[in-house]
Amino acid sequence: MEVNASILISVGLAAIVVRSMRKFLDLPIRTPHLSRLLGYFWVPGLILYLFSLLIHWKTDRLDEIYTLFLLAMVVGVLVRVQHYRPARTLLLAVVPYALYALIELLSGALSTGFLHEYRSLFSNSQGFATIWLVTFVLIARKQKKQLEAERVVREAEEKERREIAAQNAQLERLVAERTSSLTQQTEELQHALEELKTTQAQLIQAEKMASLGELTAGIAHEIQNPLNFVTNFSDVSAELVQELEEEQQRPDRDHELEAELLADLRQNLQKITHHGQRAASIVRGMLEHSRASTGERQPTDLNVLADEYLRLAYHGLRAKDKTFNATLNTHFDPSLVKINAVAQDLGRVLLNLFTNAFYAVQKRKEASPPDFAPTVSVATRQLPNGSVEVRVRDNGTGIPASVRQKIFQPFFTTKPTGEGTGLGLSLSYDIVTKAHGGTLEVESEEGQGTEFIITLPA
Amino acid sequence: MKILVVDDEQDVRTLFEQRFRREIRSGAFTFSFAYSGEEALDYLHDHSSEVVLILSDINMPGMSGLELLRHIRHQYNSPPPTPPQVMMITAYGDEASRQQALELGANDFLAKPVDFAALKEKLLHLTAHEN
């Protein structure tokens, strides 16, 4: 009876084994079903015990049978979870001991002599199996720790990878957002650029129209004079014809007078043609000035162009301010060659320079004694290298040094608001330098006058 | 009657000579011409006593007609024998110009285009008075 009770100690041992196994192999997670089944490890022990009580079988084999059962159960579980490396190692650890336990039981059951015969060997084997068991359990433990460490590292890596992936996704999203906003900005800028270009074109046209406005009065005056001549010479020619007819009716015709009248008539007709053409050419010039530039280059006589625009600018200003007068000096080089240029554009440049010159002398006259003689000069010169030079000079207020750097900048003006667009000189500069490959320079002394020098290649 | 015409347009001479050809032929008028204010002053310097009437354009390059008028009134106002009559002619026939010309001592003010029939009337009237 006492002997059989030792099985209870084995059951207690089995409880520790089962608990350790569950913990070591993570059985509840790996095989929940098996783990639950293991919970009934005590049932066979109890059955064996009750059975032995029932048949009054007194033996110490009962304990060994239960131990063997326990080992078999352990082996079974380990086989089941063999894909886990520490489990395989444990299997390796347990098998010799289980074999030993089996042989011991069998030999005990079959013949006691067998045991006696190999007593020492058997005892060694038990020690060996135990050492083997302990060693491999330790190895398995180490393996498990190693696997744990690897798993931790892997998990960390995995976490890092996920974080990187998340960051990548975030970055992708940001890039997409940034790209779309940049695309939108580009479109907006493109739009703004186009608007600016349109505005620039409009401004250029507005400047042209403004200068046309300055011209209008001058043109009106310039046209009025030749038209007056046309009318007057026509009228007077009619009188001459009448006188000639009267003379022809006389009995004593004065042939000398008739010849004189005819000569006068011929001369008048020439004058009418001349003044008619003069008016027509002014109208043509005005139309050309207001038309958008075709940019077509033609052989241009700068002497003629400068003379024409000097007069237009002068009369334009005088029409606005009737008290204004200025001396106009022209020094045209007769050897000046025609240059290939857009006459209409150069005309605008000259008009602008003349208008500025008249403005400057007028300003100076306002603050000067009555004997101040406002003078605007234009001079042309053929340069030895084939280029031509046009100098527009005035004895006006001059340009202060502080301002001289800015005069060619767009929208820079010293005139009161509404009087100047600030585009005249800027456009002139572009026309001379960019469109014609020339230079536009300024020399000025404050209070003394200004000279603009245009140089144009032939 | 000697008349000095001051205008920067050269053809004015031809025009006047034809318009007044009968009067010139008959000797009623003699015309002299100057093409700028400065030239007119030069001419007057030599012929001040002869010139009875000056017809001057206002808008001319250099010395304007109004400046010429000022000079004339300044230099020839204490006459031997009588100061010349001055008529101003301008394309800008507005009231401000007229006022200014009359204040400066102009005797008359004509707008361009010149009505030669009316001008002839005025000149003949002047001649009648002179005589």
TrEMBL record, chain A:
Entries under SMART domains matching the protein: HATPase_c, HisKA
Limits of the Histidine kinase domain: 218-458
InterPro entries, sorted: HATPase_C_sf, HATPase_dom, His_kinase_dom, HisK_dim/P_dom, HisK_dim/P_sf, Sig_transdc_His_kin-like_C
Reaction equation(s) it catalyzes: ATP + protein L-histidine = ADP + protein N-phospho-L-histidine
Sections of the chain in a coiled coil: 139-209
Keyword Transmembrane tagged: yes
EC annotation from Swiss-Prot or TrEMBL: 2.7.13.3
One Gene Ontology term of the molecular function aspect: phosphorelay sensor kinase activity
Xref: SUPFAM superfamilies: ATPase domain of HSP90 chaperone/DNA topoisomerase II/histidine kinase (SSF55874), Homodimeric domain of signal transducing histidine kinase (SSF47384)
Keyword 4Fe-4S carried by entry: no
Membrane-spanning residues: 6-25, 37-59, 65-83, 90-115
Pfam families with a match to the protein in the record: HATPase_c (PF02518), HisKA (PF00512)
Keywords, comma-separated and alphabetical: Coiled coil, Kinase, Membrane, Phosphoprotein, Transferase, Transmembrane, Transmembrane helix
Protein's name in the database: histidine kinase
Organism field: Hymenobacter rigui
